[in-house]
Specification:
It is a multi-pass membrane protein. Keywords: Membrane, Transmembrane, Transmembrane helix. Helix content is 79%, strand content 1%. The chain is mainly alpha-helical. It has one domain: Up-down Bundle (Growth Hormone, Chain: A). A two-stranded antiparallel ribbon has the order 1-2. Helix 5 runs antiparallel to helix 17 and helix 15 packs antiparallel against helix 18.
C-alpha cells in the first residue's frame, strides 16, 4: 500500500462512520436535505449546542461526588455507580443507535436524544438513590445516541469539510466538559449548597440545544419514509468485523483508553480532596485537565492521518497517561497541575487516536460504521467497569495507591493492543 500523503486526511474523511450507511435518500429525501443545508448557520449552531452536551452531564458530577454520597450515605463502590452507570449505557445505547437513525432520520433522533438527556439530568436529582441511577441510565443512553449520530451527520452534510467540522464538534464537546467541571462547585454554592440544583442546571443546556434542533427537524421532515435501503452494501461485513482480530485490537484500545479516562472523570477530584485539597481547587484542576485534552485531541489525529503506521503515537499517549497516573500516586497535590496537564494531553491524544484508528483500519464507509459501533459498544461496556472497580478497591484498601497501580496495568495492556492496532492493515 502506498504511503499516505497530504491527501490522506481528506481520504479518511470519506470513511467517517455513518449510522445511516445502509440507506440512500430518494429524490424527495435529497430535496429535504438541500433545504436543510440552505440554512447552514442554523445547522452549525445546532451541531455546536448538541456537542456541548455530549460530556457536560458526565463531567458536572465528578466534583460533587462527595456531596452526593453524603446525601444518600453511599459507599465508595455505590458512589462509583453514579459515573459507571452512564458509561455502561454509552455502550448499550451505541449498539441500538443505528436503528432509529435509519428508521426516522438523524435530525428527529438527535432532537429526541437531547430531550432524553435533559429529562435524565432532572431525574438524576430527584430525592432517591434509585432516581440517581435511573437518571444515569437516561443520560448515558442519550449521549450514546449523540456519539453515534454526530460523525454521520457531519459526513453526510459536510463531506468536503469533514475534518474541520469534526474539530469543531470535538472542541465543543471538550469545552462543554471543561465548563461543567469548573462550574459545578461554584453553582452549588450559588444555589445555597444544593448539589441537586447544580446538576439540574445542565438540563437547560440540553433544552437550548433541543430548541435549536427543532427547526431542522421540521425542515428535514420530508426525508422520513423516503430513504432507499442499500441492500447488501456489505451484507456480511457486520459479522466479518466481529470475527476480525484487527477489529478486536482497535476495539480493545478504544475500551482501555476509555477506561482510564472514565476513572479520572469519576475520581480525579476525589483523589485530590482525599489528600487535603479544597473541593473548589480540585474542580478547577479537573476542568484544566479537560481543557488540556483539546491539544492532544487536535494534534494526534492530524499526525496519525499522515503516518503509515501509528505505533509511535500509541507509545506517546500511553506513556503520557502512565506518567500522569504515577504522579497522582506519588505526589498528587504537590504536582497536581503538572499531572493534570500530562494526563490531559495523553487522554485527548488517546481518544483522538482511537477514533482515527477506526477510520484508518477500515476499507470503506460501511466497515467504518460497523467497526465504530463495535468499538463504542464493547469499549464503553469495558470502560464502565473502571470507575466501579476503582471505587471498590479504594474502599477495600482505604487509599488510592492500589487502584492507581491497577490502572497502570491497564495502560500497559493498552500499549500492547494499541501497537497491534496501529499496524498498516485493513479490517
Amino acid at each position: 500500500m502506498p504511503r499516505p500523503d497530504a491527501g490522506a486526511p481528506a481520504q479518511a474523511d470519506q470513511l467517517l462512520p455513518d449510522a445511516e450507511a445502509d440507506v440512500r435518500p430518494s429524490a424527495q429525501g435529497a430535496a429535504a436535505r438541500r433545504a436543510l443545508l440552505a440554512h447552514p448557520v442554523l445547522l452549525l449552531v445546532g451541531i455546536v449546542l448538541a456537542s456541548l452536551n455530549m460530556r457536560a452531564a458526565l463531567a458536572s458530577v465528578s466534583p460533587l461526588v462527595g456531596e452526593i454520597s453524603g446525601s444518600f450515605g453511599l459507599s465508595s463502590t455505590a458512589s462509583s455507580l453514579v459515573t459507571s452507570v452512564p458509561v455502561l449505557f454509552l455502550g448499550v445505547g451505541a449498539l441500538a443507535a443505528p436503528w432509529p437513525a435509519r428508521r426516522f432520520g438523524t435530525e428527529p433522533v438527535l432532537l429526541g436524544a437531547l430531550l432524553l438527556l435533559g429529562a435524565g439530568v432532572l431525574v438524576r436529582v430527584l430525592p432517591s438513590p434509585y432516581a440517581l441511577y435511573g437518571g444515569g441510565v437516561l443520560v448515558g443512553t442519550a449521549i450514546a445516541l449523540l456519539n453515534v449520530l454526530m460523525p454521520g451527520l457531519i459526513k453526510r452534510d459536510f463531506p468536503d469539510r469533514a475534518a474541520s467540522m469534526t474539530s469543531l464538534y470535538t472542541g465543543a464537546m471538550i469545552a462543554g466538559a471543561t465548563v461543567a467541571a469548573a462550574a459545578s462547585v461554584p453553582l452549588e454554592r450559588a444555589f445555597g449548597g444544593s448539589w441537586e440544583a447544580s446538576l439540574a442546571f445542565w438540563s437547560l443546556l440540553a433544552a437550548v440545544a433541543a430548541v435549536a434542533w427543532l427547526p431542522q427537524v421540521l425542515i428535514a421532515r420530508g426525508r422520513t419514509g423516503h430513504e432507499v435501503r442499500v441492500a447488501a452494501a456489505s451484507a456480511g461485513s457486520g459479522r466479518g468485523v466481529w470475527r476480525s482480530a484487527l477489529a478486536w485490537q482497535v476495539t480493545l484500545f478504544m475500551g482501555l483508553q476509555s477506561l482510564w479516562t472514565y476513572v479520572l472523570i469519576a475520581w480525579m477530584p476525589t483523589i485530590f480532596t482525599d489528600h487535603g485539597m479544597s473541593a473548589s481547587t480540585a474542580g478547577v484542576l479537573f476542568a484544566f485537565n479537560n481543557l488540556i485534552q483539546v491539544a492532544g485531541a487536535f494534534l494526534v489525529p492530524l499526525l496519525a492521518g499522515r503516518m503509515r503506521g501509528q505505533r509511535p503515537l500509541v507509545v506517546l499517549v500511553t506513556s503520557l497517561v502512565g506518567a500522569g497516573y504515577v504522579g497522582l500516586m506519588l505526589a498528587p497535590v504537590a504536582g497536581a497541575w503538572l499531572w493534570s496537564a500530562v494526563l490531559g494531553v495523553g487522554q485527548g491524544g488517546a481518544v483522538g487516536l482511537a477514533l482515527t484508528l477506526i477510520v484508518l483500519r477500515s476499507g470503506d464507509a460501511p466497515t467504518a460504521a460497523r467497526l465504530s459501533g463495535m468499538a463504542q459498544t464493547v469499549g464503553y461496556l469495558l470502560a464502565a467497569a473502571g470507575p466501579l472497580a476503582a471505587g471498590a478497591v479504594h474502599e477495600a484498601t482505604g487509599g488510592w495507591t492500589v487502584p492507581i497501580a491497577l490502572v497502570l496495568c491497564v495502560c500497559a495492556a493498552a500499549l500492547v493492543v494499541g501497537l497491534l492496532a496501529a499496524r498498516d492493515r485493513k479490517v
